[in-house]
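Per reviewer request, we include the raw input and output of the structure prediction for the construct analysed in the revised manuscript.
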Amino acid sequence: MRRNSSKLQAPSSKQRKIILLAACSLQLATLLIGCAKREIKNIDAKGKNIICFGDSITFGYGVSAGEDYPSTLAKMLQHTLINAGIDGDTTTEALKRLESDVLDRSPRLVIIEFGGNDFLKGIPTETTINNIAEMVERIQEEGAIVAIADISAGFLLNQYHAPLYNLCKAEGAIFIPKILNGIITDPSLKSDFIHPNANGYKLIAERIYRVILPYLNQGISVLRENQ
């Protein structure tokens, strides 16, 4: 009786390329699925206002009214923004006004920007991050989206970069990296040793705009789907 026999053959070069491409595609799909799971909390936020909550960088120290970053960002978004920035504010002081300046004002999106004055006053980085984490928690409990503006710029204030990124990743907040990068070291973009001038604030607004716009558009789509 004749028996059928078959031998396993090594894949050809073309077959190996196909296998490798399939493996890479599978890894990419897995990565994308993993990223999709890290969604931004409250993307369907129903609040009315976008609030910029911060210190002198948000307040617009060094420029005339209307040249601060929230005013410029409002023009880009074609949406009224509330500037809740106070010159000289630390995260500890900001927590005391969080309810009145943010939570009581029907927030839809809150852009948090702090750290510079904490650094200047020698407040430990851990304390600063814990204070911002409390802000994030309380704002999200109110049903709003949170975005955190990272004030690091290269090696300057870099101690805040990774902790803020990790906080956003863990809590489902939007991370806006290095808003002062290239500004704090460029005299042509500053009004004094630290603060931006009108062109510097415009650059900050553009950086924030690019990051938050997709989430605002996504939120509008979600709200429409739920209607």
